[in-house]
Structures are given as C-alpha cells and as structure tokens.
Amino acid sequence: MCGIVGYIGHKEAYPILINGLKRLEYRGYDSAGIALINGETRTYKCKGKVSDLESFIGNQNIKGNIGMGHTRWATHGEPNDVNAHPHISLNGHFTVIHNGIIENYDVLKKDLIKNGYTFKSETDTEVLANLIEYIYLKDESVTVEMAVRLALTKVIGAYGILVAAKEDTNMLIAARKGSPLVIGVGDGEYFFASDATPIVEHTKSVIYLDDDHMAIVERNSLTLKTIQNDVLEPEVTQIDLDIESIEKGGYEHFMLKEIFEQPNAIKDTFRGRVSERNKRIYLGGLHQALPKINNAKRMIIIGCGTSWHAGLVGEYLLEEYARIPVEVEYASEFRYRNPIINEDDVVIAISQSGETADTLAAIKLAKEKGATVIGICNVVGSSIPRETHAGVYTHAGPEIGVASTKAFTAQVAVLTMMSLMLGKERGNTNDDIYLQMIKAISSVPDYITKILEQNEKIQEIALKYKDASNFLYLGRGVLFPVALEGALKLKEISYIHAEGYPAAEMKHGPIALIDDKMPVVVIATKDKSYEKIVSNIQEVKARKGVVIAIVTEGDHVIKHLADHVIEIPDHHEAIAPLLTVIPLQLMSYYIAVARGCNVDQPRNLAKSVTVE
Predict the structure, then answer these.
(1) Across the strands, what pairs with 376?
(2) Which of 124, 186, 335, 536 could form an SS bridge with 105, CB 3.0 to 4.6 Å?
(3) Is 607 part of the annotated catalytic residue set?
(4) How far is 266 from 606, CA to CA, in rounded Å?
(5) Is the pLDDT assigned to residue 75 strictly greater than 90?
(6) String of DSSP letters for 56-88
(7) Preceding amide of 86 cis, omega within 30
(8) Is residue 294 domain-shared with residue 365, that is, in the same domain?
(9) Domain count, the chain
(10) Are residues 126 and 26 in the same domain?
C-alpha cells in the first residue's frame, strides 16, 4: 500500500518519477504527488490517480535532477488534495513522503502543538515532517541527517520514507522499518522505490534497506547507517526482473494477463523441484530445516486474504499426505489471542509480497516462542524470506493486478509439493501414490492451458450474471477453500456480494437465500464427495436456484442438472484446487469488466498491505 519513488542524479527527475508512479499505482491510487528539487523544492499533488496528477501539473515547471513521488492508499485522513503526499513541515525545512503508519502520531502531534506547531492535513506523515523539523531547529548542532535519525527513534509503527531538506538540496534520505524500500544503483545516480518495478528499466543493481536502516544519498555517494548511527556496508544485489514482465503485453488488463500466465508461473514454480524422470520432489529451500519439519508435532499456517485460502488448501493436503496436524490462522488475529506455540511446532507463513505487516508480526511472535518458521512468498529480497528460518519462493513473477490470481496458484503449487515431499520423507505416502502424484502435478500447466481455451465460453456465462446482487460458492473438502477464493475474487473486483461455504453447510442456513435470482457456483468435480455434491445441486435446483457448475470433463449427471457447466480435464483430486480456481478467476474478471469496474485497481484495496 502506497507507492514511493525517488531519483537523484544527472537526468531530469520528472519523467522517471511519473513513470515510476504509474508502475507503482497498483500499491495505492487514492491520490498522488511529486516534489521536484532544483535549488528550491516545488510540490504538486492532487486527489485521484497518477493520470490526474499529470493533468494537474500540465505545463508547470518540472525542472530538477532530484525528486520524489508518492501514490497513496489512505490510512489517516480521507483521500483529498491536502492529505496527499508529499508533506512539508510547518516552516518549510523538510519534505517527506511516507509509506506505513505512525502508531504514536497522536501523542507526537499533541507535543508538537504545545510547541507551536499547526497542521494542515489529517495525516500521520505531516506529524513526522514536523517532528524532524522541530528536532532540527531546537539545537543548532543538529544536522539534517541527525534530525531524521533522532525523529525516527521516537516513532512507533512502520515506515518507508524519503526526506528532502531545504538546507541541503543535493541530498535525499531514505529509511525503513516494516515497510519496503529499495535503492537502485546507477552511474552517478540513484533510484528509490517501494519495490523494484520502477527501477528495473534503469538498473538491475539494487540495495534492499533492512528495518531500522537509513541511507544518506547524494549523486555520487551513498552512506548506509542504522538509526542508532552505526555505519554499515551496503550490499548490492542484482534483480532478476525483465521490463516485459511488468507490461500488459497486449492484454486489456494486468489481471487477465496474469490469469493467462498461470501455466508458465506454475511450470516455473515446479522447475528444478519436480522431476518425473528422477521420480522425486525436492525443495532445496527447506533442506536445512527438514529435520525439524519431519519431527514437527503440529504445523500452523498463517496468511491473510488469498494467502489464507491457499493455507486452507495446504491444511487438507498436509494432513492427507504428510499426516501432520495443521491449523490455519489469520495472521491479523494470530498474535492478539495469546496463541499456544511450542518449540516443536512449524509455522508456515504465506505472503505474495513478503511484506505483509500482519504476517511479519506473526512470524516474530512464532520465533520468540521457539517455533521453526517457514516462508512461502513470491518476492525475492523481501522481508519474510529474511525473517524466516527457511522457505520456498513461488516464482510466479511480478503480479501487478491487486486481486491475486497466479500468486494463489503458485502458493498452492508449493504447498502441494511440500505435502507430497513430507509424506514421502515421513513414510506416510507409499511409492505408488508418490509417483502418481509426481505425474499428476507435472500435468497441471497443460491442464490449465486447456481450461483457458474455454475463455470465450466462460465470458458468455459471466455476462449473463453481471447484474446479480449476490452469489453463493459451494465446494467440499479441499475445494471448499477454492469456493472461498472464488467468492473473494468476485467481491474484490466486481463489488458483488458473494459468500463461499462448504457445500454440506448450505442446508444449515444459506439455503434460505436461494431463489431464481441467486447464482450458485458449485465446484463439483468427480472425487470421493461427488454423490454428495450432486445432492447439494439438487437441493439448489428444487428452490429454483441458478447453478453454474465446475465439473470433470465428460460428466453427464450434473450436465443435466445445472444451468451451465464448465468442464476441466480429468485429474487426480489432489490437484483439483489448481484447476478449479481458473474458471472462477475468469468469471469474476469478465463480470467486473462488464460492470465497468477497474479490475486492476479495485476501490479501497492495495496490493501489499504493509500496515496492521
């Protein structure tokens, strides 16, 4: 949430900043702003999207080789021109952009008011700008760098910030705690951003800031310190990201592109890990922790939103194949309920971005209790891989659409591999099943490609129900989490109310909602619950409900019961979640587009939730 971009060097900053903001707009799009420095600091900001900011700036002065930009996802104060970043301190000494949340802003604000400060906005960021200025002006011996550092020692919460000072217009200061910030290293120039997407077209060399680190940057120098003033040696790494992967590539929306990228994303996630020839599944990132994982008495999976749904799939698979008891927890609730965590527990943290604040907080609690913590995430160099004892990258590639698609299937792919590998390691999965499963999961990319060939048919079905007010999604067993994920996708991007339920629970309440205006999406593939799901469909039809069924290819029973059927290839039931979710993603996408919704940037949502 919120996007930060900055530049210091010999080029004109404005084109770099405005294009960077466009790449980061998936992180926040309530308002946007830019500060340009050319001896003096000029700020332009307004409510709305980056395109609105461009129009607002128009033909105004955009000269300057130093600058910073921000696209906002509102926390403190409604989206408007005044609350947009950058924020300038009362006496104009400091300009600040900020991602995160200052939890003790109210206490700091009251103290500043006592010392004569007034405020224009409702934001916690303006409080930080004024706090830096207050410390700077209070003592003549305090330098710009010291003022920023000392202010940050008084802050409770999360931040990724860029600071410019009136007294030194050839310098930018960057700092982070709990909110990502990366610095691109060029030839006599530096780039700043919340993630690597705005940087990759300029340089592949980056420095990832860690918590409580700050960088003091001029055109030809960078000094890295802790906020306690300990000097550090910067570690420059190379990012493996191509500009083509963050472009739409001819698709109307990033979400549609990412849905169609799933065969390759899953193939990349399996690559080097699943081998039909060697008859082996191997997750190298778990190698060092494998003894503890094998001896685990219990696993706790933590995640938020779509990642939580992936965790629910993982619960079914790990218990089925590895025979390990599993609990799945919302990361946002985990640390607030005094959970029982033992040293022989393994905690699996799932996050697309690797920066989810709630998940990071849960990881720290689990580590304090002595548990072994495993990370599953998509972004190399993010915080979760650095905080966990071991882990697995999903290799889904950049996901720009806010509503997660390929990240979900890649997470489920990792959990499927982990379940089978541990089943084999622990002696709970025999050789025949193990080999069957290797063959089954190796077929997933081709199966998904075949499902995507029904794109036009799924679009036709979706258009019939674009005006529905409510949807119900039903699934049994390992497909219940897929029903939850299908309902979430529809809610996120089309703003239609939707609920996911275990199919057997329908008669315990939700059946009261069913009438001829209620579309009911039933995931009804052939598995051990097939006869039961057929009965559930009959219950819906008896009440004039509209049934859209996801079925196994060649199914003739449900075809005669349902109003619409979408077929998927015949498959092993363990890979069903990876296949059945694809039609649900497409259906949500086409409904949302037909309703005129912005599917890549749905209202009130941000891609990476870095505040609690």
Answers:
(1) 350, 392
(2) 124
(3) yes
(4) 24
(5) no
(6) HHTTS----SEEEEEEE--SSS-SSTTTSSPEE
(7) yes
(8) yes
(9) 3
(10) yes
The pLDDT assigned to 2 comes to: 77
Residue 489 · residue 585 · CB < 8 Å: yes
pLDDT: which is higher, 70 or 2: 70
Per-residue tokens: 60: 């105004």
**Residue partners of 413: CB distance under 8 A and separation at least 6:** 266, 269, 270, 394, 441, 444, 578
Place of tokens 């420059």: 236
Residues 464 and 343 in one domain: no
Helices (H), 356-405: 357-368, 383-387
Identify whether residues 327 and 348 lie together within a single domain: yes
- Give me the catalytic one of 2, 304, 377, 597: 2
Domain CATH code at residue 327: 3.40.50.10490
Q: Beta-carbon neighbour count of residue 446 at 10 Å?
A: 11
pLDDT for res 269: 95
Is residue 606 situated within a structural domain?
no
Q: Are 22 and 52 in contact, with CB atoms under 8 Å apart?
A: no
Q: What is the mean pLDDT of residues 323-342?
A: 91
Q: Calculate mean pLDDT across residues 468-491.
A: 96
Give residue 76's pLDDT.
66
**Which among 45, 292, 489, 607 is annotated as catalytic?**
607
Q: Give yes or no: residues 378 and 286 share one domain.
A: yes
The answer to pTM > 0.85 is no
Spell out the alpha helix ranges (H) of 124-191. 124-138, 144-153
Give the pLDDT confidence of 400-457 residue by residue, as tens digits. Answer: 888 999 999 999 999 999 999 999 999 888 888 899 999 999 999 999 999 999 999 9
Q: Same structural domain for residues 240 and 252? A: no
Q: Name residues whose C-beta falls within 8 Å of residue 379's C-beta, 6 or more positions apart in sequence.
A: 195, 352, 353, 354, 355
Q: What is the pLDDT of the chain when averaged over all its residues?
A: 91
Task: Write down which residue in 244, 276, 294 finishes a domain.
Answer: 244
Contact 416, 441 (CB under 8 A): yes
pLDDT band at 607 (very low <50, low <70, confident <90, very high): low
Q: Where are the alpha helices (DSSP H) in 526-612?
A: 530-542, 576-594
Phi, psi of 127 (to 5 degrees): -60, -45
CA distances from 529 to 273, 318, 418, 477 (A): 31, 19, 24, 8
Its domain, for residue 542, covers 449-599
338 φ/ψ angles, rounded to the nearest 5 degrees: 50, 60
Is 2 an active-site residue? Answer: yes
- Torsion angles phi and psi, residue 427, rounded to 5: 75, 20
